[in-house]
Description:
Blueprint: H1 3-7, E1 41-46, E2 53-54, E3 61-62, H2 65-75, E4 81-86, H3 95-104, E5 110-111, H4 116-121, H5 129-133, H6 144-149, E6 151-154, E7 157-161, E8 164-168, E9 171-176, H7 177-183, H8 194-203, E10 206-207, E11 214-215, H9 225-235, E12 241-243, E13 249-251, H10 256-268, E14 295-300, H11 301-310, E15 318-321, E16 336-341, H12 348-360, H13 362-372, H14 386-389, H15 394-402, H16 414-427, H17 433-449
Helix pairs in contact: 12-13, 16-17
Amino acid sequence: MTPSLLRTxxxxxxxxxxxxxxxxAGTGSEGGDADKSGxxxxxxxxxxxxxDGIDAVTGAKTPGIGQLQAAFDKANPTIKMEIVSIPWxxxxxxxxxxxxxxxxxxxxxxxxxxxxxxxGKRGLLVNLxxxxxxxxxxxxxxxxxxxxSARSWGPDNPKNLFYIxxxxxxxxxxxxxxxxxxxxxxxxxxxxxxxxxxxxxxxxTGKNPVTGEQNYGYWYQxxxxxxxxxxxxxxxxxxxxxxxxxxxxxxxxxxxxxxQAMEWFVKMSAYAPKGALxxxxxxxxxxxxxxVVAIIPEGENGYFIPxxxxxxxxxxxxxxxxxxxxxxxLGGLNSVSPLAMAASCPNKEQAWTVLKWMASSPExxxxxxxxxxxxxxxxxxxxxxxxxxxxPDGAIVFDQVRTTDAVYPWxxxxxxxxxxxxxxxxxAGKVTAKQAxxxxxxxxxxxxxxx
Length: 451
């Protein structure tokens, strides 16, 4: 799963449908009642390699889906699981139509399913609270905050738990220690503030006093700037709205807090290289000696973790800090990959065993990382990926995963795209920040009126 693919999906709504696994969260099937006498638990998974391979960037081995199947079978000999693996694809042949067709036809029990809350809202998913209530062995290995942020509206309950986090992406703020040293600027804090970033970005924009090269203090990914904007706004006290007890969304972009955040973002864009607005990733030279940008927000796991593991000499130069945090101590895009269960699943007890193993076992956590760079979300998951724990800022990377903002229920809907389009217009100087927010609000209100 590439970083760009992940950005196009609902934040934290990649639900992994898998089958057959251990009893307690993160354990095998010993002590359980499940056995292979029943029908197999079918699982739809998306975007994992069919065969073992080699990563083109790092040269590391990437395990095929068969290795996950083998690890599960070894840990759960009494449960039969069948994985249905499909590519992401696009359009009529993409994962979305296939998922829709399979769940309507009751073809699988567990799904890797973007936009799981939307399926739950239609009554197609199990509220996992019902499974937890019947399971005396269940242990919350993900933390109260993670499970609380996963809750969403359903036909019978406004606070359903339609998925459990399986693995996650991460977004941190990178900073180049060499450029900070060249400019004589104090290192970036582990938890930088809006004011600190603004001050230091301004200090490091211009001709480098040591090399004479043009340096830039700040960076933004223009085509995905909406997520950077949301982190900025949250740190400034903004809140997008809420989901009502009836399942309706209330969204307010046109507020003083969002206006302050957008005006700040536009001001900061002056410290970024020209052309940032058209980009979808990191600046040229990132993680090399040719880098010229000092502060680089929104660093995603696929952009830096495998590379720093493969290039130890760059670990001290390119450091990582937490994403911007609000007064609640949270901030940054929530990009968990959840596991959900179809309401039509005929063997829910076995499927529940599978889901727990897939969402918490060391074997599964290691597989997700080794095949796609995704990070553990369970407490103590660092042990499954020691390569990350060994990085200078490994602890920050892991903790950022657990301190993101809550999942945005509109992340794959028109409110996101309306805000992104108007943010781009403001950054390009085509409209004022106020005009951008007013237009985004109008388009969002039009969409909400049709829901």
